[in-house]
Design goal:
alpha+beta, 2 helices, globular
Length: 168
């Protein structure tokens, strides 16, 4: 028996507690990359991106999908606040494939403001469908867009902003 205390993992959605369990380690997706947590981890606050949370209890490894949100790690407690949560048994693979195709088509034909709210919703739809498929063992397709939910594209287009035409 190990003298190391487990990590209390809680994943909370707007509907309430989606997962409460003690784990030996976990990995979660942040906007800056995946991060791992072992007992005794330093305090951390991170913005979560849509992705897979992997955790281990003894020799048992499990995975769940989460949407964007926030994580707080402190005192051997991991609290993940997210708007979306799914276990592998909750995934309808055919429906997720359909949603991914529709979101991808909508992104390809999108003619609104890149980085705006409507564009962000399409990115979130695409990411959520791809993540649910990945949870079932299907890797995301190569056409997945690389912009994440928290990133805005408008900062990179300052040089493209319209300027008043001069009267020549």
């Amino acid at each position: 028996m190990s003298d190391i205390a487990p990590i209390e993992l809680q994943i909370i959605t707007p509907e309430g507690a989606a997962l409460r369990t003690n784990v030996d380690e976990l990995t979660a997706p942040s906007v800056d990359g995946d991060f791992g947590v072992l007992p005794g981890h330093r305090p951390l606050i991170a913005a979560l991106r849509t992705g897979i949370v992997t955790y281990r209890r003894g020799s048992e490894r499990e995975q769940v999908a989460v949407g964007p949100g926030f994580a707080e790690i402190a005192n051997d407690r991991a609290l993940l606040l997210t708007g979306s949560f799914c276990r592998v048994e909750g995934v309808d693979v055919a429906q997720a494939r359909k949603e991914l195709g529709e979101a991808d088509d909508d992104l390809v034909s999108f003619d609104g403001h890149l980085g705006g709210p409507e564009h962000g919703m399409l990115i979130r739809r695409e990411r959520w469908a791809a993540t649910r498929l990945e949870l079932c063992g299907e890797p995301p397709p190569p056409t997945i867009h690389t912009v994440h939910e928290f990133q805005t594209l408008s900062h990179g287009i300052y040089g493209e902003l319209e300027t008043p035409e001069s009267d020549e």
